[in-house]
Amino acid sequence: MSKIGIIMGSKSDLPVMQDAIDILKGFDIEIEVDIVSAHRTPEKLFDYGKNAHTRGIKVIIAGAGGAAHLPGMVASLSPLPVIGVPVKSSNSIDGWDSVLSILQMPGGVPVATVALNGAKNAGILAAQILGSSDQCILDKIMVYKEGLKAKVIDSAKDL
Ligand code: RP5
Question: Which part of the chain is the PurE domain (predicted)?
Answer without folding.
Answer: 2-152
